[in-house]
Structure formats: C-alpha cells, structure tokens
UniProtKB/TrEMBL annotation, chains A, B:
This is ADP-ribose pyrophosphatase YjhB, NUDIX family. Coiled coil: none annotated. It comes from Flaviramulus basaltis. Gene3D superfamilies: Nucleoside Triphosphate Pyrophosphohydrolase, Winged helix-like DNA-binding domain superfamily/Winged helix DNA-binding domain. CDD domains: NUDIX_NadM_like (cd18873). PROSITE patterns: NUDIX (PS51462). It comes from the Bacteria. InterPro entries: NUDIX_hydrolase-like_dom_sf (IPR015797), NUDIX_hydrolase_dom (IPR000086), WH-like_DNA-bd_sf (IPR036388), WH_DNA-bd_sf (IPR036390), WHD_NrtR (IPR054105). It holds the Pfam family WHD_NrtR. Residues 10-142 form the Nudix hydrolase domain.
Length: 229, 229
DNA sequence: TCAAAAGTGTTTATAATACACCCATGG
DNA sequence: CCATGGGTGTATTATAAACACTTTTGA
C-alpha cells in the first residue's frame, strides 16, 4: 500500500445539476420531487453518484440527459460542496454543475417520470441538503457570465426577436434594460444575423427575426472580456 | 443499504494547493519535490488526502499550514479535477485551492523539510499528474480577481510603498501600468491610509508608506464589481 | 381609428488612457 | 552637482447611460 492511500478515507462523490430554463416569461429551474430515501417527498436538484470510471463532466452530462433527454448542452462546473454532514446517510461530497436549456426542447415524459417541475426562481421551495446554496451560487455565476459574454442563446429558439433576447437578459440579470442601448450593444458585438422573416405573433407590425452566428460567437467566448486596469 | 450508495463507487479525494508568493520582484509559486511514491523525485503542488471527517476548506488550510506554518491565509476553491486516470495508483479526484502569501513570512524550516522551492511562473517545470493544468487555471483566476477587486495585499508587507503595490499588480497581470493612472485608480478605491513614514531604502528622496484599511477593503470585497450591461 | 409593440440616433456623463515635468537627497 | 526614483494633474478618447417620437397593421 502506498503512503497516504488509506482506504478508510474513501468516500462517495455525487454530482448535482442546476438546470436553468427560459420560456419567454421567466427564468426557471428544474427540480425533482424525490420518491426515494433519504428525504423522500422533498424537492431537490437532479443528481447522482459519480461512477468509479467516469469524469465529473461525464457524470453531469449523464444526469442531465437522464432527466431531460437532451444532449450537447452547455454545462459548467460550479463548485464542490463538502460539509461533513451534508448528506445524512453517508459522507458524500458533491460537485455542482449548471446547465441552461430551452424549456420547450426537453422530453416531457422523462420529466414526469422523475416528478420534476419547473420553478420560477422566486418560488423555489426549501431543498434537501445544501441544494439551496448550490442554486444561489449558480444564479450568481449565471448573472456574471451573462454580463460578460454572450451566453444564453441556448435558452432561445433558433430564430428569435430582439425583444425576446432582451427579455432573456432582463430576466437573467433581474433588471430592466433600455431597448435602444440594448440593441446597440448587441449589434456592436456582431454575432447576430438579421433575417428577412418576421415574427407576427407578438404584434401587428411584426418584428424581425435574428439568428445567431456561431463562428463569431465562439471567437468571443474564448477571448477574455474583462481583465481591465 | 440505501439505493445508489454503492460502496464500489467510493473513491479517494485529494486537495492540491497552488501557493502564490511575491517578493518585490516576481510572482512565484511554491512547489515540492516528492520524496515519496508515486512520481518520487518529480515536482508537484503541495497536496494531501481529504480525511473522512473534514471539509475541503479545512483540508486546504491544513495542507497549507503544514508546508508554510502560516494561518489565516486567503484561500479560494478553484476547480475539481476528475480525469479517471489522473492518479495512476488509485482513482482519486482532486479539488484545487489557491492561496496568496507573503514570501517573507513562511517558515523556512518547514519548506526545507518538504524539499519545497519557489518557482517563477516562467520557470515552472513539468509537474506530476494534472498539476500544470491546475496551475494554469489558478493563474487565470488570480489575474481576473486582481483586475476586479483589490485582492493581493496579502502579498505585501504591512506597510508598503505605492511602487511596491504597482509592481505587484504589474507582476500579477504581466503588464506595465502607468504610474499616475495607477495611483489615481487606487486612490479612487479609497482603501489605503497614507502614513507619515517614508521608506528610504529605494531612493534618496524616500517614498511614503501606505497601509491598508481593512474595514473599507472588506466592503469592496463583498460588493460586486462587475455586472455591467 | 386606435391600441400595441417595433424600430430608430443623438446627447450627456462617466471611466479609461495617454502623456511630461519638477522634487528631494545621498553619493 | 547630478543620477535616481518619487511625486503630481490635465487633456483626450472610449464606453455607458439617458432619453422620445414615428411606424405598422389587425381588430
């Protein structure tokens, strides 16, 4: 036996996913009602144990997929929670990931199987363990990310109007934005293609649809946006 | 046995510390040369196993203290690394933490016991496992933090000159800064007290010493500095 | 014809950057 | 008396914020 590798120190490792969704109205988070112990009947984040031969990223993807049926979703590791008694059954550390998905695109059936439900951020109930802390951290991170890089298009349909995009930003940042300033800012980023089609559902006049130019977007993603002084 | 808690999935969990130091000259990182297996003789970050009854934060503090003798150090959790074969001996996940300390203040003796050495960032050798990745991530995070909040005073003596502070920022950001703009910016933050003493070692004229007003600093720390749009 | 949402530019304020000279002192 | 690092302020530019009216068309 190698020095330091003491089998008594082996512990469980879980992954919990904060799944954000958006539906033209509200920023929501997907929670499941547990039909298993511990804390059966209570609400929690969707999670699972890390397998012996699996990375955390893979586990997060697996867990998200199991609940939503979705693939190729933007996910990001958030933080690892390690309070000794956070899980009352066995010592378990949990790494949280957050994802942002389009609420329309998930698999309804799977969600029902898991007793899952979308909650507006203002209506989130008490969650098990430290899941409320995880959610708080995820919201903060999402806001920061949104302010500094053009994340969030995952939350919109492929073609969208400027007002939808603005609404999304306003919802994430929890703050009203000026219509003209917003458009100027987005245009200056030069990541959208203006289509000739209009969406006629929201007004009599109709509003132009935009699409998202992936190549340019990816450029922006890799650059650093802050780093001033 | 509770569903999901499969003892086969239990694994080791380690903590690795990226310890930054500064000595008027250079930003450095403290590495140890391993006199134990695996990878004996190679350089690595200082690390250790998480104990069964201990949080990650506590483990990070314990590990830092063991190597430097220091306490009450600013540390921050960075990221959790989980490649399946990152540790060739046993499946081990590692959470990295970074600390910034004053190079003068550590315990020389302890450092010698661990075959530890300070390396300039440009001279860091190949490290074991994924420790170079950890270091890269830490450097990025440190730069970002430095740009947006007045971190880094931990790296200076209690009383310091403006030029020392500027040098520190220049070193961390790897970028030259304008003397006057720097002073204006720092003054606008209103977190320093100008002392009547001068430091006479660096020039014939001498330069005023400053001290750091903790209360105001803490205020700034908790505010969010970015979040634009 | 009017209600409801879309679209569009300019002005002002704030923040970041660029820039050059005099000062004090020990050797 | 001069070499060395210390100290200081203003003008310019870039970015962010504030702000109001006209257009379209289905009901």
């Amino acid at each position: 036996m190698m020095v330091g590798y003491n089998p008594d120190d082996k512990i469980f490792h879980a992954v919990d996913c904060i799944i954000f969704g958006f539906n033209d109205e509200d920023l929501k988070v997907l929670l499941i009602q547990r039909d298993f112990e511990p804390e059966k009947g209570k609400w929690s984040l969707m999670g699972g144990f890390l397998k012996k031969v699996e990375t955390l990223d893979d586990a997060a993807i697996r867990i998200l997929n199991r609940l939503t049926g979705m693939q190729n979703i933007y996910m990001e590791q958030l933080y690892t929670f390690s309070e000794v008694n956070r899980d009352p059954v066995e010592r378990t550390i949990s790494t949280s990931y957050y994802a942002i998905i389009n609420i329309e695109k998930h698999n309804e059936e799977l969600i029902e199987n898991y007793n899952a439900k979308w909650f507006s951020l203002s209506e989130v109930p008490n969650l098990i363990f430290d899941h409320n802390d995880m959610l708080d951290k995820a919201i903060k991170r999402l806001r920061r990310r949104t302010s500094i890089s053009p994340i969030g298009f995952e939350l919109l349909p492929e073609k969208f109007t400027m007002r939808q995009l603005q609404k999304l930003y306003e919802t994430i940042l929890d703050k009203e934005l000026d219509k003209r300033n917003f458009i100027n800012k987005i245009n200056s980023m030069d990541i959208l293609i203006k289509l000739k089609e209009k969406d006629m559902t929201s007004s009599t006049k109709g509003s132009f649809l935009f699409q998202f130019e992936k190549a340019k977007y990816d450029e922006k993603q890799t650059n650093s946006f802050y780093l001033k002084l």
